[in-house]
């Protein structure tokens, strides 16, 4: 197996990429642009093809026009000239398919073989299902039955979240997939793991002598993970009302980020070694023992009408395709404990919500206080040191330290030193999907979730959902555009902490030094 550091420079092996759901939003916004970026950067050579699959009839030209529009609108590279474009788009084909009709798969196989012969592709096939999850099982089955998995090369299945609705449904889905694909052929996407700064967490932690020795319960007071969004449910009310923030963001993105922060250093940088360490964190999460414990440690909220920047906003229950008496949570915050030697006693506070004041993904590591007796007699208390990892939309890190105010006799002031990755001229951060498609084609599953991770995360989340289910209407509301229910502040206040400001909402008394 290749070392992941060496995969960086690898050109993707010749393969056909099948995009099921090729006329959908994900393909248009993320997948076509990602494939174009990989091509522009030389990570895809000429021995590749994309076959778009969807029910809708579409001619080859119409499909290629769709791809062009998507790249113009969403790709970080623009189409430079006609020659370059023609050379690229010649690799794109479209097949209209009723996914339940086996004959259609036979036609798809014939088309694939022609395309493989034309571009000298050695039978490697990557099936990307950008489809509704209830179709994953039947499409996999039909791929096999329709002869799509009998070529000489490798076959891989890439699927989007949600992977099930709870542990039981996830197990059922997994069993269906396993009838066709082996675990090592299944690439479960969690697009947060494709984000540049989420991957950087590993490097920051394990490549810096500054941090690793301090990364434990002796030195860290608490860790805060915030995934806040300004959007509401938009046009996804139908899906979201059955899901809610816990399932939509908690079971996957939030717990995955927590594993990256809390995992032990892997013995080697091989995918399975890294995923072994991640799943150990999930297994160490302390389960809430009762509904009362859930209530004490987990806050749920739903946005009510409110306003943001002078614009009035609907409440969740007024949104399209949402039940007018819905009790689905659009916000949750939790205090999570990781019961192992490194983290015993350190609370991880996680929160996510829609219609919050800013869009941001950030991790704040708050270090324990220094013995302040050295500074007794000062008129102020020392601020704790912070390490803040900004994932999105700003990318970078900053550390907050205490230093002597220049010119004063001994006044100490907090100083934030920032490395702003996204401010660097010329840094054009790859999109999560570029990295993930490239990795899947190279057989690197590091940043995809393994079945045991998914199952363990569901087992943790199911307990919360079950406790909420006992008393569905026990949900707090918060005005759209605010920071969520007050109980989320109390959750930290009970332990003597508070949420640190996020997304550059700088505190008044801090001196900033920016890169
Ligand atoms: C998706 C959720 O997985 O992640 C959405 O289903 C959410 O509800 C989105 O808006 C957030 O992703 P990002 O990359 O914009 O932070």
Quickly describe the structure:
The protein is α/β, with parallel strands linked by helices.
* Secondary structure tally, helices: 14
State the major sheet: 10 strands, mixed
Q: Say which molecules are bound, naming each kind only once.
A: 6-O-phosphono-beta-D-glucopyranose
Tell me the β content: 15-25%
Binding site for substrate: 191, 195, 229, 248, 354, 359
Binding site for NADP(+): 21-28, 55, 98-99, 161
InterPro entries: G6P_DH, G6P_DH_AS, G6P_DH_C, G6P_DH_NAD-bd, NAD(P)-bd_dom_sf
Keywords: Carbohydrate metabolism, Glucose metabolism, NADP, Oxidoreductase
Note down, in words, how this protein is organized.
- It comes from Paenibacillus segetis.
- Helix content is about 35%, strand content about 20%.
- With about 525 residues, the chain is an alpha/beta fold.
- The protein has a ten-stranded mixed sheet with strand order 17-8-11-12-7-13-14-15-16-18, sandwiched between helices.
- The two termini are about 40 Å apart.
- It binds 6-O-phosphono-beta-D-glucopyranose.
- The site of 6-O-phosphono-beta-D-glucopyranose has 4 residues, from loops.
- 6-O-phosphono-beta-D-glucopyranose binds next to loops.
Structural descriptors:
515 residues, alpha/beta, six-stranded parallel sheet, 14 helices, binds 6-O-phosphono-beta-D-glucopyranose, oxidoreductase, carbohydrate metabolism, NADP
């Amino acid at each position: 197996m290749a070392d992941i550091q060496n995969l960086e420079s690898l050109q993707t092996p010749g393969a056909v990429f099948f995009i099921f759901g090729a006329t959908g939003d994900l393909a248009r916004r993320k997948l076509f642009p990602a494939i174009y970026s990989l091509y522009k950067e030389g990570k895809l050579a000429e021995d590749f093809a994309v076959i778009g699959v969807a029910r809708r009839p579409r001619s080859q030209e119409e499909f290629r026009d769709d791809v062009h529009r998507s790249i113009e609108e969403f790709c970080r590279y623009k189409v430079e000239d006609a020659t370059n474009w023609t050379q690229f788009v010649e690799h794109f084909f479209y097949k209209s398919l009723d996914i339940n009709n086996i004959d259609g798969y036979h036609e798809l196989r014939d088309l694939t073989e022609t395309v493989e012969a034309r571009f000298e592709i050695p039978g490697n096939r990557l099936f990307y299902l950008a489809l509704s999850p209830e179709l994953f099982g039947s499409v996999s089955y039909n791929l096999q039955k329709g002869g799509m998995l009998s070529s000489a090369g490798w076959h891989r299945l890439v699927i989007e979240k949600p992977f099930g609705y709870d542990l039981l449904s996830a197990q059922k889905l997994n069993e269906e997939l396993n009838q066709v694909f082996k675990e090592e052929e299944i690439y479960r996407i969690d697009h947060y793991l494709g984000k540049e700064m989420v991957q950087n967490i590993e490097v920051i932690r394990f490549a810096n002598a500054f941090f690793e020795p301090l990364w434990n319960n002796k030195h860290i007071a608490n860790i805060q993970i915030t995934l806040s969004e300004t959007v509401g449910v938009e046009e996804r009310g139908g899906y979201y009302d059955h899901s809610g923030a816990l399932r939509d963001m908690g079971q996957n993105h939030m717990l995955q980020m927590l594993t990256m922060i809390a995992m032990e250093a892997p013995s080697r940088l091989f995918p399975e070694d890294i995923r072994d360490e991640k799943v150990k964190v999930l297994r160490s999460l302390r389960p809430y023992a009762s509904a009362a414990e859930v209530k004490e440690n987990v806050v749920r909220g739903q946005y009510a009408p409110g306003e943001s920047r002078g614009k009035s906003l609907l409440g969740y229950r007024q949104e399209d395709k949402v039940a007018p008496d819905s009790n689905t949570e659009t916000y949750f915050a939790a205090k999570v404990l990781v019961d192992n030697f490194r983290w015993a006693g350190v609370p991880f506070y996680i929160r996510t919500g829609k219609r919050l004041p800013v869009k941001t993904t950030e991790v704040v590591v708050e270090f324990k206080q220094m013995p302040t007796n050295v500074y007794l007699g000062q008129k102020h208390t020392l601020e704790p040191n912070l390490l803040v990892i900004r994932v999105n939309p700003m990318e970078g890190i900053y550390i907050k330290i205490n230093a002597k105010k220049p010119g004063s006799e001994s006044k100490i002031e907090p100083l934030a030193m920032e490395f702003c990755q996204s401010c660097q001229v010329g840094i054009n951060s790859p999109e999560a999907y570029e990295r993930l498609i490239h990795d899947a084609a190279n057989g690197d599953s590091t940043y995809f979730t393994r079945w045991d991770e998914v199952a363990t995360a569901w087992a943790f989340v199911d307990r919360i959902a079950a406790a909420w289910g006992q008393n569905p209407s026990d949900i707090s509301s918060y005005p759209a555009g605010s920071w969520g229910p007050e109980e989320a502040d109390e959750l930290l206040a009970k332990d003597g902490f508070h949420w640190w400001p996020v997304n550059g909402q700088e505190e008044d008394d801090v001196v900033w030094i920016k890169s």
